[in-house]
Amino acid sequence: MDMKLSGHLTLAVVTxxxxxxxFACTPEEDGQQKITALEVDPGTVSLTEGEKLSLxxxxxxxxxxxxxxxxxxxxxxxxxINKAGTLKAIAPGSATITAALxxxxxxxxxxxxxxxxxxxxxxxxxPSITMxxxxxxxxxxxxxxxxxxxxxxxxxxxxxxxxTVSGGVVTAIGDGECDITATxxxxxxxxxxxVIVRAIPxxxxxxxxxxxxxxxxxxxxxxxxxxxxxxxxxxxxDLVxxxxxxxLATISQSAAGQAIVNFAQDxxxxxxxxxxxxxPERCAVQQFFVKGAEPLVIRPDGILYxxxxxxxxxxxxxxxxxxxxxxxxxxxxYEGASVAxxxxxxxxxxxxxxxxxxxxxxTFAEEFEAxxxxxxxxxxxxxxxxxxxxxxxxATRAYFVTRQxxxxxxxxxxxxxxxxxxxxxxxxxxxxxxxxxxxxxGDIYCSNQTRIFCLAADGSVRWEIPVPEGRxxxxxxxxGPGLSNDCTVLFASLTDKRFIAVKADSGEILDxxxxxxxxxxxxxxxxxxIVYHSNSADGVGAIxxxxxxxxxxxxxxxxxxxxxxxxxxxxxxxxxGQTRCWFPCAAGVMVEVDLxxxxxxxxxxxxxxxxxxxxxxxxxxxxxxxxxxNSTVCRIDPGTISGSPVPFVDYSGSSxxxxxxxxxxxxxxxxxxxxxxxDGAGNNTFFRISAAGERFVPEVIATIGKQNDFPQGFxxxxxxxxxxxxxxxxxxxxxxxCVDAERAKxxxxxGGDLCATKNANIAYGD
Length: 766
Fold this sequence. Notes:
Layout: E1 4-6, E2 9-11, E3 37-41, E4 44-48, E5 52-54, E6 56-60, E7 70-73, E8 79-81, E9 86-89, E10 93-101, E11 104-113, E12 121-124, E13 128-132, E14 136-138, E15 141-144, E16 153-157, E17 163-166, E18 169-172, E19 176-184, E20 190-198, E21 204-207, E22 215-218, E23 222-230, E24 240-243, E25 249-255, E26 258-263, E27 269-276, E28 283-291, E29 297-298, E30 310-314, E31 322-329, E32 332-335, E33 338-341, E34 347-357, E35 360-370, E36 374-379, E37 390-391, E38 397-402, E39 407-412, E40 417-423, E41 436-437, E42 444-447, E43 451-455, E44 461-466, E45 482-483, E46 489-494, E47 498-503, E48 509-514, E49 519-525, E50 529-535, E51 541-549, E52 552-553, E53 557-560, E54 573-574, E55 580-584, E56 590-594, E57 599-602, E58 615-616, E59 623-627, E60 632-636, E61 647-650, E62 665-666, E63 672-677, E64 683-689, E65 699-706, E66 712-718, E67 721-727, E68 732-738, H1 754-757, H2 760-763
Parallel strand pairs: 4-11, 13-20, 22-28
Antiparallel strand pairs: 1-2, 2-40, 3-6, 5-9, 7-10, 8-9, 10-11, 12-15, 14-18, 16-19, 17-18, 19-20, 21-23, 23-26, 24-27, 25-26, 27-28, 29-30, 30-33, 31-32, 31-34, 34-35, 36-68, 37-38, 38-39, 39-40, 41-42, 42-43, 43-44, 45-46, 46-47, 47-48, 49-50, 50-51, 51-52, 51-53, 54-55, 55-56, 56-57, 58-59, ...
């Protein structure tokens, strides 16, 4: 991308590495170390036949990042090794195991000795069995010990007119009783199974290789159906096979209890194959759909990613008789011939498809494997903290700020790549960096400690206004800029004890009012009314109400706040009716304000340290928030805010940390998400808390592993993506994971639009 100059500001796009699930990131100059040496541990191994051992690698430098090691054996007839590094001794001899990583290799020398363990006993799992005439049973002879070399077994029957045996398979011949004996060739150890043969009627049948779903068959192909009898020892084993439509499928019996189904070459449709024994009600039925060369389902192009939406289509062009098409994936149902959905959270799974075809209901499964779409990008600068990512109206782009140097980044949520980067001034960049997105124009507003900037959606600078020394609009002074109801006016708090209103399209200052504050939170609601919470260096805490009309601030009403110490990095939550507002404050205090009566209704201590961004569920029944000091995630009833909430997740007393990871986010169904440095090892993990029931154990969405120790960080959810990040003095990381969930307007807090606009009317779609 070309570099653009505007004044003394430089806009530079930094091309950074993207890690896909199956591909490692290219090392970057500012973060990742290249591997210079590789050692296999252990380097020398002696095993006997059948033994297994896990090998691992040590790399130099020790903090180099890698994903996959390629293992190989010089002689797989002696020793084999799988992708996970598990070594198995096959036969006597020698082999060399090689581990390769980024062009660097290491070896392990392997010697395999012969296993000469003798047999010490033999055991049959069944002391006696009862069989129906004509049925078969398989006896399993276990040679002891498991390491014994000669495992040959000799089988005999005491009366072959009753039952015969071959290789452990017992065939019932006629009424009576006999003994089946298994004898070890090594040592002559014996065990006996007593066999009783009777005429036993069949109770039910099913196909052992059948399916409750419709089996999709290619035209001109065959399918062998195998019957399973209940009871298994029934003697009523004669079957009658039928096809519901012989123009689609004919049957040729190949053996007792099984038959070959032959499908027509040039005709599509539904056919049922039935096997019946004795009473016609005792039958097994399997439905097939015979298709032509065209597939029934047009699958998404390319790789399927866990938690990421893709379009699935029923091939109505080739199979036009299909109607009432439904899809089930991940426990959710979708309707229509072409539907976009996230098929799974990851790994092997199926999509269930149902339709009416020619008056018959068919339901079949499309099997697939989803890879993990996990973006892992190294960033320049340190500590991307005290700010949450925000999203454009379409939730196709996310924007976030790093602390030192102060930079604003664009993230493309459609392909997981970084877009443009805007570099702010090098000086006066301490702390924070909250930002705001205009849902009408798409403009992004940001600041450092000397200027406020407006950038267009393409990253170009639309305007900037300088702020004299000491008049800092950084997050240290408050929760960032906000917008008026019509998105034409931008509001911002300055630590020179002023609150300003500027034209959103030009940066022209319209009005301001003086206020004594060091930290400042505010939100816009109603008819461009503003509610704020502030505190000053001399310990004065205040809640204020002011209306903006005609380009001017109206009369300000101030009341005392029960919290004398606010927070500098959070936005308050407002309920859908815009009658109540909650301000997270320091020392674990949550201040609830009645916006109608303009008074404080509650101020309980519900956490420790700074309470982070509160988040209301879409129905307004629950509020989630995180407490900074003791690293807890809590859920409370906003209708009864007083009292101590029970933590959903409690990391207090551990080395885990949510320090400035900016709280919790909800999806449209009320499930909550958060991001944490999980343990002392530095593992960084995305979690989900189910909205259903009283589930206090969070579900792991993705564990990134130790990228670096994140003492500070950020988190938010939008566009079907969990976005987390953090940094230390040496490296920053941006981590993105798709989830099968939606962020939408309808509630305030992270995951909704209030954190991007500070305006409850816009957040609630009014």
